[in-house]
Amino acid sequence: MIRKWLAVNILLTLGCFLCLSVLPAAAYSPQQGQQPAYTIPEYNAYQAARAETNPQARIKLLEDFVAKWPSSTLMKYIYQLDYGTYNDLKNYPKVVEFADKYVAASDPKEDMGTQLQALYIRALAFNFAFKENDPNAADELKHARDAAMQGLKTLGALPKPDTMTQDQFDQQKKAPSALFNYTAGFAALQLKDYKAAVDSFQAALKDNPTDGITYFRLGVAYLQQAPPQSMDGFWALARSIALKGPGEAQVRDYLRKRLADYEQAGCDNVVDAQMNEMIQLAGSAADRPATYSIPSADDLNKIRQSSTILTVIADLKTGGDKAKMTWLAVCGSEFQDVPGRIVDMTPAADGSVTFEMYTGASQEEMDAATGPNVELKITGEPGATRFNKKDYFRYSGALIGYDPQPLLIHWDKAKINPEDVPAEKAEPGKKRTLKKPGQK
């Protein structure tokens, strides 16, 4: 997916960029009144290679030229043909090699436009060519970062053509500027220089603010810092997803995992809902609002430690951010021996019973309740069918969901306290053995 993104960007940005470069013609033929610095055979061999339309045949001609005239003053133009031809052949390591040779052999003042072109194509090729498992990966990354920074410096020094307005010129420079900054950021990220990576990716996004892959890399860089810049990292990843960047499904999985690790919420659906909300918000805002935050595991643990079922009910009734924060903390949590009064009950054919109950702070409150605030399904307990409406019993279980209006909390793994289960009625005509007080 990333290579596909780069291929599209080659087509989009190369066309804009080439108008900034002018290939010098003086090397192709001596200026009038000057003695050429190369021989006629050298010049003819160069022109033959330049005119060759078959890339493989052109490479052979260029190799022959280097073998015959390794010190030729035309060598920088041979290198220029080399990296252009290897680019046609999609041999990106060779593009990098010969672009570097051209830059080293040319004059940064006289050949500014063509140096910029070489650095630009080198940056594109590097993003295709780089492999993390390459034994020379560290050196390649350092060279790529240096070349990208040199490209930015050269781009900044490039004079404005007389045929362009300043605004047109500035617009033309945005595409190569974004590529150089992205490449420098990627190299810094791989070198674990996360602060430098963040700076470069942010600079790239100023010139290309809707690029999903750059937002993804920026998010990773934020999260890899020590300590992690979690909120900024989450927002950048959400922004990448919202922009439909390459590998969207993988980025979504990565964001979800990092969110889950950060919060350690008890319910998966809570993390999913929070992530979807963040993606929606990030789709309309490049920068995270200062008021937007996500609680950490420590924040949620503090709420859990001070929560009872009564405080949970009160917070959920309050609604808003209070309810949201409390539910993040307690979803999936288990509570024991919670008292409740049956408002309604629905037995099923499989022997299970769904109870709608009201749990409150006192018996008076529960007696006065006209509707439920708790729903639990009891399975595998035959005694559950012996209850009647308005009966009380204590129950245990885990919170799995709730409806806000009217409040109804859903429980999982619900169990009735055995001491509260009504005794089984004796069969007609059968005597019942009564237990003595205190006998189990």
Keywords:
single chain; 440 residues; alpha+beta; Serine Threonine Protein Phosphatase 5, Tetratricopeptide repeat; OB fold (Dihydrolipoamide Acetyltransferase, E2P); 2 domains; five-stranded mixed beta barrel; 5 strands; 55% helix; elongated; disordered N terminus; disordered C terminus
Task: Report on this structure.
A 5-stranded mixed β-barrel has the order 1-2-3-5-4. It has helices at 2-18, 40-51, 55-68, 75-88, 92-105, 112-129, 137-157, 166-190, 194-207, 212-224, 230-242, 248-263, 268-282, 297-305, 309-318, 320-330, 363-368; strands at residues 334-347, 353-358, 374-378, 392-403, 408-416. Helices cover 55% and strands 10% of the residues. With 440 residues, the chain is of the alpha+beta class. The model is unreliable at 1-5, 7-30 and 429-440 (pLDDT under 50). The chain folds into 2 domains: 2-208, Tetratricopeptide repeat domain (Serine Threonine Protein Phosphatase 5, Tetratricopeptide repeat); 309-419, OB fold (Dihydrolipoamide Acetyltransferase, E2P) (Beta Barrel). The radius of gyration is 35 Å and the shape is elongated. The chain contains 17 helices and 5 strands. Helix 8 (166-190) runs antiparallel to helix 9 (194-207).
* Secondary-structure-derived class: alpha+beta
Overall shape: it is elongated
Q: Determine the CATH topology of the largest domain.
A: Serine Threonine Protein Phosphatase 5, Tetratricopeptide repeat
Number of helices: 17
Rg value? 35 Å
What is the name of the CATH architecture of the largest domain?
A: Alpha Horseshoe
**Fourth-level CATH superfamily of the largest domain:** Tetratricopeptide repeat domain
Mean pLDDT: 89
Proportion of β residues?
5-15%
